[in-house]
Write a structure and sequence with these properties.
By secondary structure, the chain is α/β, with parallel strands linked by helices. It has a single domain, classed as 3-Layer(aba) Sandwich (Rossmann fold). It contains seven helices and six strands. Strands 2-1-3-4-5-6 form a six-stranded parallel beta sheet, sandwiched between helices. The mean pLDDT is 87.
Length: 243
């Protein structure tokens, strides 16, 4: 049976970043983008007050998309934290739970969030800092009209992330795969590996060529790696993520 893969966007993004991948034919997974409030078709909805509110909204979307079938989570950067909190919320409610949690380009929940100064920067300085931290900036930030729409969304997500305190709940009974770009300048290997502490049933770490936003450079490689993670037991070698 094809598994529903709920995909949680990174900071400043919406479900649209994953929607082109819904056309991808796969026997293992089908991409189901999660939409946050305050962007795209949900533009008029207020931003989330905190990560708990985000998790509650996302949990409802996950269960609707799964429609009673098996599902897994993928989240990149800020999206990894939202995915984790959504899984914790489902666990606290007695399930159902994702069969796998794939986190990408993110420090584990236990790593203290440090204020980046982005929230105090003007728009030009914010874009410069994003380029420095991530190694690149979204192409849309270069278009003044789009930038005026997107930067408030980005700031709202960064504010949630910097104020984030992980749920005081036990490890999840869910396997975890940790993905990290080999040239990521925002998250280091030790920070990413701390995701291993959120699971009671095991984890694996996979390095993928590229920087913090490696996925936007090679979506097919990402989905191939995720499919391999879903199909392969944690104790078995994963297919190489290198091309």
């Amino acid at each position: 049976m094809t598994m529903s893969l709920s995909c949680f966007p990174y900071a400043g993004a919406g479900a649209g970043v994953y929607r082109p991948s819904r056309r991808r034919a796969g026997e293992v997974l089908r991409v189901e983008p999660i939409q946050y409030a305050g962007r795209e078709e949900c533009f008029t909805e207020p931003f989330y007050a905190d990560l708990t509110a985000a998790a509650e909204d996302c949990a409802a979307q996950v269960l609707k998309a799964a429609d009673g079938g098996p599902f897994a989570f993928f989240g990149h950067s800020f999206g990894a934290v939202v995915a984790y909190e959504t899984a914790q919320l489902l666990a606290a409610a007695g399930g159902p739970l994702p069969e796998h949690l794939v986190v990408s380009g993110a420090a584990g929940p236990g790593v203290p969030r440090i204020a980046t100064g982005i929230l105090q920067a003007d728009d030009e300085e914010l874009v410069r800092q994003v380029a420095e931290l991530m190694g690149s900036v979204p192409e849309s930030f270069g278009h003044r009209g789009l930038r005026e729409l997107l930067l408030p969304v980005f700031r709202a997500d960064v504010a949630l992330h910097e104020a984030y305190t992980p749920s005081l709940r036990g490890p999840l009974p869910v396997p975890v795969t940790i993905l990290l770009g080999s040239e990521d300048r925002l998250v280091n290997t030790a920070q990413a590996r701390q995701w291993g502490e959120v699971t009671a049933v095991g984890h694996r770490f996979v390095e993928i060529p590229g920087g913090h936003m490696y996925l936007t450079e090679d979506w097919e490689l990402l989905w191939e790696t995720v499919e391999a993670a879903l199909e392969t037991p944690l104790e078995a070698p994963l297919r190489s993520a290198a091309r």
